[in-house]
Amino acid sequence: MNKARFRTSHSLSTSHSSIRVFVFGLCVLWVVVLAMGVFAQSTQGKTPPKITGTVTLAQAREAVSKVVGTDALPVWLDTYALSLPLKDAIALYSEFIPKASAARRAELGNTAGALASLAGQWENAASFYSLASSDPDALIKAARCWLACGKPDKAAVTLQKLDILIAGKDKTGAGSTVSDMIAQEKIVQGWIYLFEEEPEKAFLAVKDVANTQGKGQAKSNVQALSGAESLFLLWSIANSPDFASFKAPTKGFEPKALESRLGTEYPNSLESALMKQKCTLLPGNLLLAGLYGSGTNVPVAERSLATAKSASDSAGADAKQTEKQADTMQLQVGFFSKKDNAQALVAVLQKKGFQVSIDEQKTKEGELRWAVIVASQGDWSKTQAKLKDLGYESYLLP
Fold it and tell me: What is the pTM of this model?
């Protein structure tokens, strides 16, 4: 009897142990599956999709729509956008940025804004940059883009948002010191006054910037940009018919004095080249000359335009420049802080039949930047017109 009880008890105990092992095994399996799922979700947002061949906007839209609501959306959106023609990329960003998390919209908006400004779609660019409402540099870009599409009222509203940000800063902001931000704000305000046909207000807004931006001893790219642009803007104002009737003191800001300062303090700047008529820009590009210099990006004005160097002061410089214009000229189409973005644009332009190269440059801080250059044989204006027809703005490099 006791042996029977023992055998029954032992059997029950063994059965219970088996069940416990089985349940424990299921729990372990569930934990492993759950961990694999979490790992897949955590790595999905960091791994870009593999794209082969030519992608259409419809295909990109279908692919990106599958990751809406996941951490993968930003990297998939960026990857597919940069594989598309410029206009299609902007359309893709316009559709999917609103579907991204609030924390990622600002970053995506900065990228999309750069592409839209490259395409000359200033209103789209302004809207994209405005998404980064807590980034002073992005707001400066947004304001400039609003001006480029002829909406100074929206530019003024954007500057009001910038004022709020500046008021909350102690010493430094996103990529710029407070003084840098204020200088940029005053220059944009000067442009707004010019749009509103109030040149004296523009003069008063900008003249202090020209006197405080280092006079050739700039400590940052933003200061160099602000100094050159403020002098050029003042020079433009000084050449206006209303300048002689200004009530504010204008001594030291006469056209000749400003020409001398700009040529001495910023001899290789874009503004100096424009003043000396060594190159030309479309109105939008002229207004946005400072767009790519905001923050840590190298301003367009940093690129050396005096290719003749010391020979530019000799009598033969003009002849060399004329000869060069008849030969190969170069047009800058884009300027990037990421080499992959520059390479993507090069690939697109090469498919369109252009001779394209990448010019690697360094900022004063030693950071790398990449300019996309299109070579033009013969009449460069025809190449520029062809680029514009395809949606790409460019400017001539002397």
Answer: 0.60
